[in-house]
Amino acid sequence: MSVATAVAEQVLNGLVVGMVYVLLAAGLSIIFGVMDVINFAHGELFALGAYFAFAIAGPLGGAGFWVALVVAPLLVGVIGMAIERLTVKRLYGRDPLYHILLTFGLVLIINDLITSVWGKSAQPFPIPAALDQPIALFGFTYSMYNYAIIVIGSVLALGTWLLLSRTQFGMIIRAGSEDREMVRNLGINIDRYYTLTFGFGAALAGVAGIVLGAFQNVSPTMGNAVIIPAFVIVVLGGLGSFRGAVAGGLFVGLVQTLARTYTPFLEGLIVFLLMIVVLVVKPTGLFGTSIGAGEHHDGALLHGAGGGVLSSETRAKLGYAAVGVLVLVPFLAELTGVTYSVTLLEDILIWALFALSLDLVLGYAGLVSLGHTLFYGVGAYASVLTLIHISPSVFVALVVAVIVCAAIAWFVGYLSIRVSGVFFAMITLGFAELFYNAVFKFDFTGGSDGLFGVDVFYGLAGLGIDPSEFEIPLGLFVFDGGIVQYYFLLAVVVGSYLLARRLIRAPFGSVLQAIRESEDRASFIGYDVTAYKRRAFVVSGGLAGLAGGLFAANNGYVAPSFLHWINSGEVIVMTVLGGMGTLYGPMIGAGVFVAAEDILSSYIDQWQLVIGVLFVLFVIFVPRGLVSLPQTVADHPTFGSVVRDQTKVTETEVEQHD
Amino acid sequence: MTDPLLSVRDLVSGYGSTRVLQGVNLDVDKGSVVTLIGRNGVGKTTTLRSILGSVSPTSGTVTFDGTDITELSPEKTAQEGIALVPEERRVFPGLTVRENVEIGRIGGRRDIEKPSVDEIIDEFENLARHHESRGANLSGGEQQMLAIARALVSAPDLLMLDEPTEGLAPSIVKQVQRKITELNDEGVTILLVEQNVQVALDAADYVYILDKGQVVHEGPADEVAASEEVLDRYLGVSLAE
Amino acid sequence: MTEPILQTTNLTKEFGKLVAVDDVNLEVERGEFRSLIGPNGAGKTTTFNLLTGALRPTNGTVTFNGEDVTGLPPHERVRKGLGRSFQITNIFSGLTVRENVRLSAQAAQHEGFRPTEEFLKRANTFEEVNAHTQRVLDRSGLSGRGEEVADNLAYGDKRRLEIAIVLATDPDMVLLDEPTAGMSAEETRATMDLIDEVLSDRTLLLIEHDIDLVMRVSDHITVLHRGAILAEGTPDEVSEDPEVRRAYFGGVEA
C-alpha cells in the first residue's frame, strides 16, 4: 500500500467517525441553541438508538437493518419528546445548571434500563450483508459500509440543514433561538416546537448510534464514550451553531483518527487541548455568534435553605451528635461484627469532603465546575506518587496533594474565570478530560493500570504510627491499623469542614456570599469579584485534592477512573441533593448518595435507576436540596401546620430554658 | 355607542416588587388611532406588555372584542388578533426580510384570511428591495418597517406600536408617520405609544397622557394639541407658534 | 477655580458603526448636584457606564479626583471614592440589612486586613467596620431594621438600604442611575428627600429622564442629545434653551 492510499484510508476513516460525530453533535447543538439545554443524556439516547436497532434488526434478519434504521430513530425521537415534556420542560427559566443535573440523572436511568434489558456486555450487531464487503473506488478498496456511513451522514446533515433553513419548522426554530419572547408575541406556541426539536435531536443521535453500533458493536458504555467528544465538538464549533457542529464533527473525527495513526501520544489529548484553547481565545467557538449562546438567563442557582424550621442551635447539636456517632462507630462495628460499616463510612467521609470542596465554588462563588474530579484525581495521583518516591508519610503526601491541586486550580482559574457560565463549565470539563487522557500515556502514572501497593505511615521523620504494625487491645476489642486510618480521616474531614466554615464566616466568605447574592453589586461596592472567585476556586481545588489524596492513601492505589467525568457528575449530584451553599448540606448529600448506592446495590440490580429517578424528582421538586426539606414540609399546606405547631412548642421551650 | 374594541380597567402591574402601573384606564374604539404619551419610565411600555400578557397584571381587567384577555399568555392574546410592534423593533436578526414576514403570518388569528407575504412586502418599497437581506443588515428605518410588516401580515384587529419613531432620522419618522395614517385609513385600529409629542398628536384621534403609572389626562387629539396648559403641565412642551 | 472632581475629555464610545457617546467633555465641580438628562437613546446610560467602568471608552479619558481612571475596572473606581446606585434596587437580598451595609463598609477597609484576618477572623468582629456600619445605619434611618433580611423590607426601605450601601463605601462622589424609575410621585419625593438627607455632603451626578425632578434638585444640568452635549447650565438656563426643548421633545416646532 502506498503512502497516499494509506493516508486516504485514514482520512476516510476519519470522515466515518466524523460523520457519526456530526449527527450526534448536531442534535446536541440544536437543542442547546434553541432551548439552552445542555443535554448530558444525549449519549444515552445515542446508545438507545443502537440497542433499539439491535433489537429490531436481530429477529428480522436480512432487511432488518434498514427497517431498524428508520424505526429505531423514530422511537428514540418519541422518547426524546417524552423526556422534554415530562422533565426538561419543567426547568425552563432556571439556571442551565439544572438541565445539566437533570440530564445527568437521566443518564443513570437510561443507562440502567439498557443494562437491565440487554445486559452489561458488548454485543455484535452485524451490518447488512449487502454492505459487508469491500469496494474498489478511485483505485483502492475500502469497506462499503464505511462509505454507506459517510453517505447516510451526509444525507442527514444536508436534510437537517434544509429542514432548518428551508422549512417553516426550521424558521420558527431559528427565530426562537434568537428571540423566543418575540415568537410568543407573534402568537406562536413555541413550546410545541421545543418538544419537536428535542425529539428531532434525539432521533439524530439515534441514527448516529445505529451506524456506529454496526460499525463496532453495541455496548452500554457507548453513550458514555461519545458524550464528552460530542461536547468538545459543540464547543469547538460554537454552542448552538449547526454549521459549527458539522465542521467540528468532521474535524474532530479526522484529528482523532489521524492522531491515532501518526502521533499516538497526542491521541485523546489533542482535541481537549484544542477545546481549551478555543474556549480561552474565542469562547463562542469557531462558528458561534454571540446570539443564542449569549442569551441571558433569569434563573439563578437555588441554594439550600438551612435556616427556617431548624434553629442554628438545633443544627449545631445535630452536628455534634453526628460526629459523636462517627467516633463510636468502630466500637459498634467491633461489637456487632459489622466491620463493613467502617469501610462504607470512610467512603462517605471522603465523598463528603469532595462535595464540601465543590460547594465552595458552586454554592458560594456560583461557578459550575463540571470537571471537579480533576482535583480529586490529581490529588490522588500526587499523593500516591509522593508516597512511592518521596516519603511514606501520609502527612507529606496529603500536603503535596493539596499544594499541587491548589496550583492547578489557580492556573485553570486564571484562564477560565473570566469566561462565565456554560463556558466555564466546559473549560473545567476540558481540563479534567485532558488529565484523564494524559494519565494513560505516561509510565510514571502507571498507564491504564494506575499505581498500587503503597505503604503508608502516619507520622513524620520516623515518629508516628505504621498501620501495618499497629495493634491495640482495648478491653474486649482489638483494633488494628484500620482504626488509625479511620480516625485520621474523620479528623481531617471534620477539620476541613470547620476550616471551610471559618472561611465562610470570615471577610473572605462574606464577600463570596455577597457575590452569590449580586455579583454586580459586590463589584460596585469595591470588591474584585474575579479575584475572589479565583481564590475560592483555589481553596476548593486544594480541598478536593485532599479528598482524592485521602482516598488513595487509605486504599493504597490510584487509577485513571479517579479522573473520569462521572465522578464530577456524581459530586455535583451530591452537592445539589444535599443543598448547595450550606457546606454541611453537600456532606449530608454525599452521605445519602453513597449509602443509598451501597444499600440499593446490594439488594437490587437496578440501583442506578432508582437513584436516577430519585435525583430527577429532586431536581424538579426539591431543587434546594435535602436541607430544605424541613422548610418545604413546613410550607406544605397540610403537613405544614403540624410541623409548624411542633416547632413553635420547641421554640417556646428553648426560650423558657434561656 | 358601540363598545370599544379594547378596554383596560384599573390595571395594576409591574415587575417584582416594583409597581409600574397604578390603575390605568383606557379605551380604544374600533377604527381609531389612540396614542399613549408620557415621559420615559411612566409605564407606557408596561401598559402594552400587560395588555399582551408578557407581564401579568396584579389586578384590573383587559377586555378585547368582548372577551376578557387579562390572564391570557402572549401567544393566546396574539391569536385573539392583537399584534405588537415592539420597542426597539426586535426583528429576527438572522432571518431574512421575507422570513421575518412569513413567521409573522404564521402567528395571529387562525380563523381569518391573511394577506400574502408578497402583498405585504410590496406595500413597503424599501423592504421589497431587500427581501433576501437578513434582519440584522437593515437600517433602523427599514427594521422598523419590517417590524410593522411582520405585525400587519397577521391581519390583526388591533395593532400596538411601541415607540416606532425612536432613534430614527426625521425623514424616516415622517415615513413611519405616513404609514400609520395610511394603515388607519385602511381600517386598522391602532394603539400607539410615542414619546415624540408631535408625532403622537398628529397621528391620533384620541390621546391619553400617562404619568407615574396613571392616566393624568385624556381627550381628543385636537383638544390636547390646542391646550397649552395641558402640554406645558404634563409634557413640558409648547406647540405655540 | 478648584479642580473639578470628575472630568471627561473627548469621551467617545462606538458600538460598531453607532456612536453612542460622541466626544463628551464633562466637568463636575466638587460638592455640586449635577444632572445628566436627554431623550432615550441620547447616550445617558452609555455615559454612565463609561463613568462607572462597566464599559471602556473607544476614545477619551475619565479623570476622577485628579487621577486618570479610564483604565480602571469598576471595583477600583469605587475604592477611589466613585460610588454608584442602581436603577433597579440591587441589594444582597438574602442577607440581613446590617450585613448588607457591613459588606459595603468592609469593602472600604479590607485591603488593610492581614491574610489571617481576611480568611479566618469572624467578619463581624472588626471593630472599625462595625462602627462604620452602625454610623451608616443610624444616618440612613435603618438602625431599627439591622437584623431583618433585606428581601423582607418594604419597597421604600429597600431604596433606603440601596442608598445606605452606597454611603457605606464612603464615596466622594455618587453616580445615581435613575433612582426613582418606576416610582409613584410620592415614592419619588421620598427617595429624593432621602438622597438629600443622606448624601447631601457628597458630589452627586444624577442620570434621569424626569425633567421636573431634575429641575427641582440640580445645581447644574447637562443635556445630552445623540451622544453629544447639547447644552449645559443652571436649571433656569437650560429650561429656557430652545435647542433643548426641540431636542428633548423631538420635532416640535417652536
TrEMBL record, chain A:
Pfam families reported for this sequence: BPD_transp_2
Segments crossing the lipid bilayer: 12-33, 63-84, 96-118, 144-164, 193-215, 227-255, 262-281, 318-336, 348-367, 387-412, 419-439, 483-500, 536-559, 571-595, 607-627
InterPro entries found in the cross-reference section: ABC_transp_permease (IPR001851), LivM-like (IPR043428)
Predominant place of localization: membrane
Organism of origin: Haloferax larsenii
Coiled-coil regions listed: none
Membrane topology: Multi-pass membrane protein
Compartments in which it is found: Cell membrane
CDD domains for the chain: TM_PBP1_LivH_like (cd06582), TM_PBP1_LivM_like (cd06581)
UniProt KW keywords: Cell membrane, Membrane, Plasmid, Transmembrane, Transmembrane helix
Cell membrane as UniProt keyword: yes
Superkingdom as given in the UniProt entry: Archaea
UniProt-recorded name of the protein: ABC transporter permease
